[in-house]
Amino acid sequence: MLILEYHSVSDRRSDTLSVSSDALRRQLDHLLLSGWTPVRLGARAEGSADPDGAREVAITFDDGYRDNFEVAYPILSALDVPATIFLTTDYIGTQRSFPWDAAVDPAESRALNWEMVARMAAEGLVEFGSHTCAHPDLTRLPAAAAAKEICESRAIIEERIERPVISFCYPHSRADAQVKRIVAQAGYRVACRTGARGGDPLELPRIGIYRHTRFAEFRFKVTRVGRALREDPTLRRIGDAGRALLGRRA
């Protein structure tokens, strides 16, 4: 299974974490025309995904930006593409901006409210997973504090959407053996992070898509070769060196 990582989808932001609506639609169109089958990340654990998963793609969004509902959701609905949104629950339903968006207009950094979450959950196209309560680096917390972040966020989301939450995303893409053990004990069945390697269901690899990801780069990232470059350390270093060389020649 190919897992893609998005954050904000906005035509009014220009920062790294946001992609434009046109870019998202073009990327999804490419996946569909290339024979990819979009699935929710939880399908990996529910048995509804292809066991091989060679041509399945999970579209994921981190944090829970309001524009996931206002901009991304209409595109997903029009194309009938399911997705998974990982909620950072301390921000959902508040007027607080995410702290990493200090340079972004606060109006463009708002989180979803629970009514938006409930509507998307009820309509069935979007699966909701946890991204903890406050988005800490879990590997730097004592076990009890990490468990609180991991378990309470799940309980909050389940209460709001009235269905099980089985998918988790590690904040800052940071996980270790202790954190993974807590995630499993909390009841999550799949978890992901950017930079992971291999097929561990509690450490599935993702590929980040950002404002600077050009369409040609996106197309390469989702190829078998592109994915191998991301997952193999040696190949990744070669690929980074090649891109740097091309950049100097451009």
Q: Structural class of the helices, strands and pairings?
A: alpha/beta
Enumerate the spans where pLDDT stays under 50 for 5 or more consecutive residues: 242-250
CATH class division of the largest domain: Alpha Beta
- Look at the structure and give the mean pLDDT: 90
- Number of helical runs? 9
Give the fraction of residues assigned to helices.
Answer: 40-55%
Total count of strands: 10
User: What is the total domain count?
Assistant: 2
Cα radius of gyration in angstroms: 17 Å
Q: Name the beta content range.
A: 15-25%
Characteristics of this structure?
single chain, 10 strands, 9 helices, two-stranded parallel ribbon, disordered C terminus, alpha/beta, globular, 250 residues, 8-stranded parallel sheet, TIM Barrel
